[in-house]
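Task: complex structure prediction.
Instruction: return structure tokens for all chains below.
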Amino acid sequence: MSSEIIELIAIDHEITWNSWAVQYFFFIGISVGGLLLTLPAFVLGKGHWEKFSRIALLVALTTGLVAPVALLSDLHQPARFFQFYLHFTPDSWMSWGAFFLPLYIGALTLYSWSVFRNKHALGQPVVRVLGVITGLLALLIALYTGSEMGVLDSRILWQSNWLIPLYLLTGLSGAVGLALVLSRIFQPDQILLTHTANRALSITLLLVTLFMTIWVSAGSIGQSASGAAFQNLAMGEANFEIIILWLLTGTLLPLLFTLIKFPALAIPTGLLALLGSWMVRWVMFIGGQGLPKNGAGYYNFELSLGSEGWLGIAGSFGFWLVLITLITSLLPWQRSSSNA
Amino acid sequence: MDSGRRKFLTGGAPIASLSLLNSTATAATNKQSGKAKKERWGMVIDLRKCIGCEACTAACSIENQVPDGQFRTIVSSYEVKREESSSSAVLPRLCNHCENPPCIPVCPVQATYQRTDGIVVVDNTRCVGCAYCVQACPYDARFINSETNTADKCTFCVHRVEAGLLPACVETCVGGARVFGDLNDANSAVTKLIMKHKTHGLNPEQGTRPQVYYIGLDGALQSKIEGTPSLWNRAQAVEQEARS
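Output:
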């Protein structure tokens, strides 16, 4: 018998993975994406990728260094981080992540140092070995970040293996977007570099669009509960605007710009792709927790002005700006063999 | 009068209390020696007797000093309309101390664990406040305590149980709807109720094997509620209270 239920007394539950978690997943996703883009040059030895790969490595390093700060800030007891290392828990993806992350950051730092300090880094065995190790660790980061959420059967939007490719692809598109922006800022005369970044961005954004189409379609035909949940989330009043905004301005618009290939649009294109990469994580985290596990309706989230809200978001981007300024000022990161 | 509750305290009170204290002591000894557990604490909630007065909510909050706006247990109230008829329904919610608790394996520091008597607890001196368990619990029974910044939840008032007392919510239940006891004891009030009545757990599709059993649960309330949401907003209420 059909029934209509009205909640009289019920509580809306707090969103406990808030903006810091979004920032962490954003920065680490961009870092992993950036790192993967360095492999064609420094592991596979493709010389024409070198300039682009150096910028991608700059992206990977700077965002990779910001990520753990955001992660620590997301803990409600950050001073107890050492407990992760005293009580390893193989059943918990987060526990694995506590080991993967410092290994990845350590390997990334060594790899970056080996590339930036040496203008003949291309083809060097040490660089290649470090690139392979860091690449494998980057894949483990992608695996654990997607799985950490994907194993949670309690959250209908998250209970899925689709999150691993979603974060990987949007991390790649965001990393290429940031590399495109940096290439225009630091090497505006390198038209070939801009074209390489532009082409890479077209491909990654096309892949993101294709992936989203398949995921939501799988939801429509009953093959993916999370895909169906995403579709419902997009149709709901609370998230309709932000999802449409993400799809239009964070994915389709930069994709269109990359196809136009107008150099003056390069920086806006890259920034829009970066925004898209951030927005997908916002939608997944905040939107996912807004869907009640038991209650009716939707839990609204109001972003506070303080360190757990806007200030935290601005602060983490500010930290990244400090890092990129310092690293590009102090390290000879542009010194590639083709400049010699 | 609820025989289960009164028996726990008065139905041969000295014997019951001694028995409980003995069994608690035995359980502690068993835990240390690694022997099989004896008790398995659980709860039966007879919804036919619940009047939705929230006395359990208040008692729990006072007993456990839960911060304002956060709850270890609450009685959700609903209006259920079917064709021409309309009725009210109540649903006390709390940690289900599941047999297969999804909150435990995800905890990256093993701060949350299940005692040999089935009670799921949090060691808040170890908890890092990552909220992974909060996400994993399908019952929304966990939260980050805004004062301790660690995960918090119902413990079946373990401190009271260890002292031979009932959980505060059971003690204060006006209608005697909440019954607490040892599910491994064939003579306990909870076991007898489960044997006598048809009971249901919440969210059976999650496979968690909850150990809070409901008598008279409306099927429409067993899993996620599809309906019109409550107008009460926790965040707004706390903010308004802070302003006033």
